[in-house]
Amino acid sequence: MTVKSSNANARANDAAAGRRELLRATTRVVAAGGLRALTYRSVAAEAGVSHSLVQHHFGTLDKLISETMRDVLDRVIEAGGLRSPSSDIADFSAELDASVEAESDSQRFLSEMIVEAARRPELRPLIGELYAELRRSTLAQLEQRGIAADPGLVDLVVAALDGLVFHQLAFHDRDTTRRALARLRELLAALTADHG
Fold first, then answer.
1. Contact 189, 108 (CB under 8 A)
2. What's the first-to-final CA gap in the chain, in angstroms?
3. Residue 110 backbone dihedrals phi, psi, to 5 degrees
4. Dist. CA 193–CA 179, nearest whole Å
5. How far apart, in Å, are the Cα atoms of 141 and each of 70, 80, 92, 132?
6. Which CATH number is 3-195's, of 1.25.40.10, 3.30.1180.10, 1.10.357.10, 3.30.70.120?
7. Which backbone phi and psi does 190 adopt, to 5 degrees?
8. Among residues 119, 115, 113, which one has the least CA distance to residue 62?
9. Given 15, 67, 145, 146, which is the most exposed site by the fewest CB atoms within 10 A?
10. Residue 146: phi, psi to the nearest 5?
11. Residue ranges of domains in the chain
12. So what's the pLDDT on residue 138?
């Protein structure tokens, strides 16, 4: 590797890290003040950069929102255990309560986006993508555990998980999340026994 290509790689890595920080700053801005608080200046202030840099990286606020949504969704699915390699029903969404705490800004960002989509129809396709990915991840996790999941069951499980996240965000109550997840796992285990 030449010095020139090494420098180019370092610049690319710095640019990617800077872009990630802008996505995380966007997450924090929306989590704290809702979508109405989102401006180039608010993201720039949160990230400690100039607002022109934010605009340079993303061009439009819609693109910034879209890329932040994808970044947040990826982190939330990973942290919540919806990509777990386990086939044990006891591990289904085992990290959900901890992930709500660890990724609280991300969860609040998603909650804000969902609520805002009720007022702004142009956000609905983005929220539709969010729920489609949650359904795909949930279906994969159920099938991995031997549960023949139809669309209705997947929707029910996603809605239950979604409700638990909202409840924990509002009340900071991990015990209810843990208790409800334990009961959900019991119900899912019964489905495994019925189909096995």
1. no
2. 55
3. -60, -40
4. 21
5. 20, 12, 7, 14
6. 1.10.357.10
7. -65, -35
8. 113
9. 15
10. 80, 20
11. 3-195
12. 95
Give the pLDDT confidence score for residue 194 in this predicted structure.
Answer: 62
pLDDT confidence of residue 2: 63
Q: Tokens standing for 120?
A: 């702004």
* pLDDT for residue 182: 96
- Looking up tokens 């009720």, which residue turns up? 118
| DSSP 8-state secondary structure symbol assigned to residue 152 | H
DSSP 16-51: HHHHHHHHHHHHHHHHHH-GGG--HHHHHHHHTS-H
Lowest-pLDDT choice from 12-26, 57-71, 110-124, 163-177: 12-26
Is the distance from CB of 111 to CB of 166 less than 8 angstroms? yes
d(Cα 104, Cα 92) in Å, to the nearest integer? 20
